[in-house]
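ok here's AAA family ATPase:
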Amino acid sequence: MKTINIINEYIEKNTNSDGTAVFISNNTAESSVVGKNLLYFGAPGTGKSYAVSQKIREIYPNFDKFNDSESAFVFRTTLHPEYSYSDFVGQIMPTTDEGQNAKFIENLGIFTQALKMAIASPNQHIFLILEEMSRANVAAVFGDLFQLLDRNKNGDSEYHVNNAFIAKSIYSEPNAESKKIYIPNNLTIIGTVNTSDQNVFAMDTAFKRRFEMIYTSIDEPGNFEDWYFKYAGQDISWNTFRVNLNQFITKEMKLSEDKQLGAFFISKSVDPEVQIQNKLLNYLWEDVEKSSIFNSEKSLFADEYKDGNFS
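and the structure:
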């Protein structure tokens, strides 16, 4: 509800008496930037979310995802197996007023929130960030909005569709629900996908074709700062360890690159040695070792640890 209040306050402040948008002069927002559908994909820990933030900073250099005043034009959510069309678009919800009388309110989903802001502020660029897209059934999440993902050369939706709930929420004129909706060229949709995730929903090719695929490499990113951890009384470089482990995974275990580890798989800011024991070993056992059973005779674990007990 806090996000919706921010949107409504912004729209009220920047709308003329006739309902048209006030022109906003802001040298941090490039109105000439054409909206796109982007999908960042790669192995875990490669910095996909960081790359997304850097993309946003191309237009909003001072963007800080923890600061409401700087992120009013950025909408972000994480998809999951139970995420639905109603979560994405919105729904009518029952509630009570101060007198405990029952009433119904429109609870806008994040897509409708972002679209509402984009329509109300055509001179600002809006970002809709969908993390972990493959963890939900994205075809069902988008539903009838799928057709909006086709964009023309100007960045607008090639096709417009009828959706009374969204239209009524984003347009202010009478009989708004009868208007068709579309994605304007000042709204960019960005998704992220971990290619190694198991038990996820497959994204069909028709859906992926409507996104510009951006691969995040397993190689050390430019902003990465190496760190060290203790093993057998020695200081071990995380990056050296990671590079050698990745080579073993692909060359000896004959697995694909998406099973490797990105530089940010473990954060040095949160007790790295505990993460190595609890996060890294579990990932290597559940996602890497079990995937190699039919690929290679090589193993990451000695026989005495193959019961999955690493304590």
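+1. The longest helix spans residues 272-288.
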